Amino acid sequence: MTTDSELPRFPFCPRGDVLHAQYRELQEHRPITRVLTPAGDQAWLITGHDLAVRAFDDDRLSLVWGAVLDSAEQGAAGPAPNAAASAQAAHKTGPRREFLGAIAPPRVEALRPRARATARTLLDAVADSRQPADLFPTYAQALPLALTCLVLGMPLDEAHGLIDSIETAMPIREDPQVDYGANWTRMHDYFVSFLARPDLPDGAARRSRDTNAARPPDERLDDDVLAEILAWFFGASHVGAVSVLAHSIVSLLDQRTAWDRLCEQGAAPRPAVEELLRHSLFLHNGLPRVATADIELGGVTIRAGDRVLISADTANRDPAAFPDPHRIDLTRNGGAHLAFGRGTYYCPGSALGRMGLQVAVEELTRRFPTMRLAVPPGEIEWRDDLLDRRPVAIPVTW
Fold first, then answer.
1. Global confidence as pTM
2. CA–CA separation, 336 vs 84, rounded Å?
3. What is the DSSP string of 286-301?
4. Which domain of life is it from (predicted)?
């Protein structure tokens, strides 16, 4: 039997611009294998694309169980236990339908003109700034945040003040200096007071509140639960979009052939967007599941109760599925990527993510065709303490 001391400790590399050699070795020789999480617990790690697809499609690998156990698995304190219960409550109520309806393709498409106008305003400010400029806070973070606020009906200036709290609530490992409970309480209290405003603007937040109020009294969610659902939605819709856009900018500025082609086209067609999603190494922590029954997969037996981590990043760089996987090929038929998951738990925000990335890349390449990274790619610092990995800064010149 393999002992803990013999197992590799996952994740393997803090950088987001290269796939560590250990991932490639496992993918080739042991596409499903046991690893240690940051907390020192054992989990099955899946790195092969075919096995990842099969795992996503198997409902015996439960996201709900994984969400409850995720904090202990990854070694981070995370939000308060009642927050996980609130997230599960959202799956059974009317407010959830309002949130999902707000990011359904028709409503997302209606937001495109406002998204484009926002991107241009942000890039105007970048053009007026001193060089080198940091494109992370001014664009890669600012544009997704603005889109999240449009969907929810939240004031942008107030949302800026929540960024640190949201990131603190989504760590990969616990910082002993951080009071995670107090951090979650601050967010919770903000959203309770926000939902209580009589003049709440139109958006998913107000519609979910009104839908909840219209339900029979014994079926309504209380204010605390509704606030926690809103906090989860705010964090989930913002953090991933920021990471994907930041990764795409860094990768495109590194791989100049792809950048120049987008500049020449003056657009980012659907295949280009899918390729950028496939190429982004932002899900470095693996997508957690827990087996609800014994499962045979890839020649191993996953026992009921075992933790499973699906490394979508690594699967998206599997040469068996995507030839020359580390190169951005804007004409690739990359629709089989797993950046949004797959199957029952396919990311409900995929339409918003695609639209935001498309608009962001189109406007950036049109406005700054001569943009360059101000430092070699290897000198960019990456945050590896968050569930979604991203650069600390994107220094650029033009």
1. 0.91
2. 30
3. -EEEEESS-EEETTEE
4. Bacteria
Q: What order of strands is seen across the sheet that includes strand 133-134?
A: 133-134, 395-397, 372-373
Q: How far apart are CA 5 and CA 11, in angstroms?
A: 16
User: What would the pLDDT profile of 2-57 be if each residue is shown by its tens digit?
Assistant: 556 689 888 887 788 889 899 999 999 999 999 998 778 899 999 999 999 999 99
Nearest C-alpha neighbor of 275 from the set 244, 246, 253: 244
- Copy the structure tokens of residue 60: 């015996």
Q: By three-state DSSP, how is residue 397 classified? A: strand
* Phi, psi of 370, deg, nearest 5: -95, 10
Sheet holding 307-310, edge to edge: 32-36, 42-46, 307-310, 287-291, 61-62
DSSP 9-77: BSP--S-SSS--HHHHHHHHH-SEEEEE-TTS-EEEEE-SHHHHHHHHH-TTEEHHHHHHHHHHHHT--
Contacts of 290 (CB under 8 A, 6+ apart): 61, 62, 65, 66, 69, 305, 306, 307, 308
Cα gap 296→72, rounded to integer Å: 25
Kindly report, residue by residue over 116-144, the tens digit of the pLDDT: 999 999 999 999 999 999 999 999 999 99
Report how far residue 176's alpha carbon sits from residue 174's, in angstroms, rounded to the nearest whole number. 6
Buried b (16+ CB within 10 A) or exposed e, 242-271: bbbbbbbbbbbbbbeebbebbbeeeebeee
Type of residue numbered 320: A
Question: Any residues with CB less than 8 A from the CB of 341 and at least 6 apart, and which?
Answer: 56, 287, 312, 347
3-state helix, strand, coil in the chain (%, to 5): 55, 10, 35
Q: What is the CA radius of gyration of the chain?
A: 21
Whole-number Cα distances in Å, 3 to 46, 270, 308:
19, 46, 18
H/E element, 135 = helix 135-135
CB contact at 8 A, 354 and 104: no
Please write down the long-range contacts of 198-201, taking CB distance under 8 Å and 24 or more positions apart: 200/153, 201/153
In order of their start, the domains of the chain are 4-397 (1.10.630.10)
Whole-number Å distance between alpha carbons of 172 and 76: 6
Q: Which residues contact 325 (CB under 8 A, 6 or more apart)?
A: 316, 317, 318, 319
CA-based end-to-end distance of the chain = 56
